[in-house]
Records
---
Amino acid sequence: MFLTKGAKPFQVAWFHFFCRLDFNGDTGIADAFADVESLFARCRFSDCRHDTEPGCAVKAALASGELSRERWTAYSRLKSELAREETARAESSHRYRK
């Protein structure tokens, strides 16, 4: 497959794949990224955003190489895309109810 510079085919293709696995996508992402999501339970704080908080298991795994930057980026992008899709779906549903 030939792509233009900077193209990210997984962004759309993987998102739609996960949405087909489960209507809201959460189950598909959780299954595909079980290794990533298992790190969350090891964070010091239950509401850790995995950004600047001390005791973040995700940051530690990234620093040690246990979790690759590419995998974390893919997970983060998919979760963001899912959130945008859910927001758009909710807004669309709200508009049609009026």
---
Amino acid sequence: MTGVQTCALPICFPVTIPVQLKRTLEAWYRTSILKLDYKSCEMIARELHSQLISQWSGRDYVIEVSEDGENGCRIYFPKDIHVKRD
């Protein structure tokens, strides 16, 4: 991912993320709706997608999770794909 990063908690967002969405994501992690724990980047992306579609379905998502700017994942979730929640 290129560009300036803004960070809160251990989560970084690209500058282009809408402020309201950024605050929502930060709240989900702060209040433990979503947890980072010891999950892989892929697991974090899938869990985040599951939460996002519960709020805003019918959209394509591209979720990028980076551990250290070097290792990570970028997953494309078409709007017709639903990941089961545990």
---
Amino acid sequence: MARYMLKAHQTAKKLSLDDCVYLCMRSGQWWNFWDLKKEFETKGYYFGEPSISASIRNLRKGPAREKYNLPKFGEVIEKRKISGSKGFEYRLINYNKE
């Protein structure tokens, strides 16, 4: 399955890590840190797993909820364990069908 979520016109301006994470996760697909990191690297953005983890947490906070038009209350990120692994996958609960 193609995971090309950051389109060329979106990368023309400098995006923050929060922007990159939101743009990938807004479709509601499941993502882990390593897949997000690979997606960002294909577009010339280099972030480590701890920074990506922090950015996913940021999506739960007020400023990001307002910026990305997410609900002010309630959970916006789902988390599930990767079968046979110590890792987790995350997805944005898809409130805004775009």
---
Amino acid sequence: MLVPRGVNDSPLLKHISEYHKLNYVGVVASENRWNATKKELEQIGVSKSFIQRVRAPAGLDINSVLLEEIAISILAEIIEVRRRIEFQRFEEARSLAHEPFGVKTQAVEKRI
């Protein structure tokens, strides 16, 4: 979670993109501030795929007003991402469980 101050935001995000494999990167920023940061990130060579994965403005849109509500919306978004990843892993494990020896096989057509 990054709360930008307008100084060193882009180099910090570049460092995160290069050295850390994170499932959630959120930036607390207005749309205008995030758009400016995205341009800076592109200029310093941050991959487009990383930029697209950043959640900005961070948090689910629940019309938050109070700081406590903003914090809850961010935590809710983190939980959503975490559960989605767990569900994907469960689905992958379940699909492998139905294959012999846990290995995916391809159907073979018999020609008569």
